[in-house]
What we know:
By secondary structure, this protein is an alpha+beta fold. It has one domain. 44% of the residues lie in helices and 17% in strands. The chain has 10 helices and 7 strands. Helix 1 packs antiparallel against helix 2 and helix 2 packs parallel to helix 9. The longest helix has 21 residues.
Amino acid sequence: MTFLVFTAAFTFLLLLFGRRGSAVRGGTRLRHEIDALFSGEHDYEPTSPERFPHADLGFYDRVERELGAMGFRKVGDVEDLTLSRVYPDRRTFVRLLVDDGALIRAGAFHLRARGGLTGLLGTLGVVPRDVYVVELVTEVQRGRFLVTAPTRGLDRLDPPPEAEVERLRPGTPLAELVARHRERVGAHLRRHTTGAPVEVRDLDGVLASVQRGHVVASAHRQRIGRLSRDELERMTGTPLDPQQAELLHEVQRGDEPDGGDGDDGDRGDDRDEGAASSTAALPPLDRPR
């Protein structure tokens, strides 16, 4: 489910690069959003699919049916409220399942780009309009994870060192995805004969594991200064231009009060948008300026 957070943040970065506005203003806003998304545990709420009219419910049902034939069972549908507060125009839900051995948790979600973001992503050709992901995770020991997901080419942010991520091609059949993840788990257990993976049997157990994933991802973002130059250059496909370098500098800067460097015009704009005071008050990111 950390990939859902990465995808939302990545699409916002692309939206920033599609504009030629103030790098300081965009970087300030992104800094506040990264801090909101990577500040430790997230708020989750059980939910109903009917609350998400843009979600492809057929996808969720197909995933549940196919994984069910491979020994998985559904434990619940949840919304990441932390993510929804930051990106209210990109709300979605995650269907959570566990396998019959209680060693693998699956999170399935559909993320649809709407509004101005749709045209931008289509032009760049880096993210499809509809992103369908089934992420398989085993917590091989508390706070350390094996992750297998069909996100090759979609996931441009580095995972924390506590997560060994293998990205398969988008559209990988579920049977192939599950087989590969089980192969990786088996290989890990043969290499590490002491200790045992964390079992996940119900919704509470799954969410506890998910929260530990958020904690290690947040610590990693803090260690690297929120966003690295390598990550940003992978997104753009080229060395950073001066405006992008300025944006990165603003993202990575410390937490001194806004306006301390004399750029009061841009900071004033951010305060009007609510970025400096509350990420929950941010307007939809697809709104044209």
